[in-house]
Amino acid sequence: MLDRYWYGDTSRISPEAPVPVVHIGSSNEIPGGAANVAINISALEGNVTLLGIVGADEAGANLYKYLKQANVQCSFLTIPELPTISKLRVIGRNQQLIRLDFEKNLQFDEPLLLDLYRDKIGAADIVILSDYGKGTLRYAQELIKIAKAHNIPVIVDPKNKDFNSYRGATIIKPNMSEFEAIAGPCRNNEELIAKARAIIDEYDLYALLISRGANGMTLVCKDADVEHFPTRAREVYDVTGAGDTVIATLGAALAAGEDLEDAIVLANAAAGIVIGKLGTASASTAELRRALQRRQDPWAGILTQEQLLQEVANARAAGETIVMTNGCFDFIHAGHVSYLESAKELGRRLIIAVNDDNSVRRLKGLNRPINNLEQRMLVLSALRAVDWVTSFSEDTPENLIRAVKPDILVKGGDYKVEEIAGAEYILSHGGSVEILPFEEGFSTTGMIQRIKEEK
Predict the structure, then answer these.
(1) Among residues 107, 101, 156, 100, which one has the least CA distance to residue 127?
(2) Is 125 designated active site?
(3) Are 387 and 360 in contact (CB under 8 A)?
(4) What phi and psi, each to the nearest 5 degrees, are found at residue 387?
(5) Do the beta carbons of residue 23 and residue 14 sit within 8 Å?
(6) How far apart are CA 184 and CA 353, in angstroms?
(7) SS (H, E, C) the chain
(8) CA 155 to CA 202: how far, in whole Å?
(9) Contact by Cβ (8 Å): 43, 284
(10) Strands 20-31 and 2-13
(11) Tell me: the pLDDT tens digits for 321-371?
(12) Using one digit for the tens of pLDDT, what is the confidence trace for 154-209?
């Protein structure tokens, strides 16, 4: 499928009908459906071949072009009389307002698709059947049998309500509604597990991996204990394509030699990354590594300047906008949190440069800081808006700002642009400088004074 996005502003209701009027300002096209699964595998540096059906049209040509740019090997069956499936989403103020689908029922020569499949399967470590219910996988049973004859595991993302189509697969990954469409309603975990085991036995599966939304994922295997994997999303922005990311990461990890439980941990973390992005998206190896590090190590977001520059280079390569701010952050209060949330909204990555202890003393006096550098950086790194924290020892972060060269430099308070360290340099290199107001009623100095008065 080809996913198309039209973006625009909406500020009024149409006089013709009770619907918003969207003034389209930009548009975008990206591979969707099974193509998004392939894109996700490639983003994780996996070698992937995509088989499927397209039309002899502009959408099909664009789909091939975008996949080739993403290093996905394409083996398409082209049917001239059919349109390539495409979906158009209209986005206003970061909210999806409507989706328009362009498709027809697929009619194709099944032996031709099987021939393509047989030609490629010898080089595969794993097969993913991404079923979107459009007809391409109505012969899924034959595809599974061919893979099993080559001793290649098969993972299925199902849409068919008859699991006979997937009999003999290694793993089927339904979401909760898809599972209950087969098994019936589940009132509790015990009932879910019992029904999952019955399905595994009936359809000769090794495992079911059930996506349960906010409840994470549940793995039920033929001869092993049940495992639950809690959701890891920091902020849900758009769930489009999250299931594709899960099955892509699961397949890539298993093909790379990870055991099933570790592969699911990776898939769960990757899903948490992509639902924090707008639209159909993927998780890179760098993003996945950072997500896992943050979970295992509360210090993971705290970087040396050398480490920070490497992370910035990775982020820039992914097209991410870098926002940077600085300060002492001695007492972290609600005003700081609000300010940093506003700063993060300006871009994709937020960096905080923190004055070290000696720098704070020179600026604030010998009785400051109240909290040492390690304590201040640890608290900042735990905030959801913050990606990376580093420190500097000079009176201003001018040299650090020049090294990072953020796209947007942010400062809070009543500064003038010409008073902000690094502002002139950033502006001269095409960046921007933003001054955000602090929330009224919050001040570290004021808090210290109130504590003294209450003693």
Answers:
(1) 156
(2) no
(3) no
(4) -95, -50
(5) no
(6) 54
(7) CEEEEEEEEEEEECCCCCCEEEEEEEEEEEECCHHHHHHHHHHCCCCCEEEEEECCCHHHHHHHHHHHHCCCEEEEEECCCCCCCEEEEEEECCEEEEEEEECCCCCCCHHHHHHHHHHHHCCCCCEEEECCCCCCCCCHHHHHHHHHHCCCCEEEECCCCCHHHHCCCCEECCEHHHHHHHHCCCCCHHHHHHHHHHHHHHCCCCEEEEECHHHCEEEEECCCCCEEECCCCCCCCCCCCHHHHHHHHHHHHHHCCCCHHHHHHHHHHHHHHHCCCCCCCCCCHHHHHHHHHHHHCCCCCECCHHHHHHHHHHHHHCCCCEEEEEECCCCCCHHHHHHHHHHHCCCCEEEEEEECHHHHHHHHCCCCCCCCHHHHHHHHHCCCCCCEEEEECCCCCHHHHHHHCCCEEEEECCCCHHHCCCHHHHHHCCCEEEEECCCCCCCHHHHHHHHHHHC
(8) 17
(9) yes
(10) antiparallel
(11) 999 999 999 888 888 888 999 999 999 899 999 999 999 999 988 888 889
(12) 999 998 888 999 999 999 999 999 999 999 999 888 999 999 999 999 999 999 99
Task: Single out the catalytic residue among 244, 330, 387, 407.
Answer: 244
Exposure string for 386-424, b = 16+ CB within 10 A, e = fewer: bbbbbbbeeebbbebbeebbbbbbbbbeeeeeeebbbbe
Helix axes 34-43, 242-255, angle to 10 degrees: 50
**Sign of CA pseudo-dihedral 364, 368, 374, 380:** negative
- Cβ–Cβ < 8 Å for 241, 273: no
CA–CA gap between residue 179 and residue 239 (Å, rounded): 19
Note the pLDDT tens digit of each residue in 241-267.
578 889 999 999 999 999 999 899 888
Interatomic CA distance for residues 27 and 8, integer angstroms: 9
CB 4 within 8 A of CB 28: yes
Domain 297-454: CATH architecture, name and number where available? 3-Layer(aba) Sandwich (3.40)
Q: Which of 343, 412, 432 is nearest to 383 (CA)?
A: 343
Q: pTM for this structure?
A: 0.65
Q: Quick one: tokens of 74?
A: 């394409």
How would you classify the pairing of strands 322-327 and 349-355?
parallel
The CATH code belonging to domain 1-123 is: 3.40.1190.20
Domain spans of the chain?
A: 1-123, 297-454
Residue 420 in tokens: 């902000």
Whether residue 153 is preceded by a cis peptide bond, meaning omega within 30 degrees of 0, is: no
Look up tokens 């920091």; give the residue: 234
Burial 365-384 (b: 16+ CB within 10 A, else e): eeebbbbebeebbebbbebe
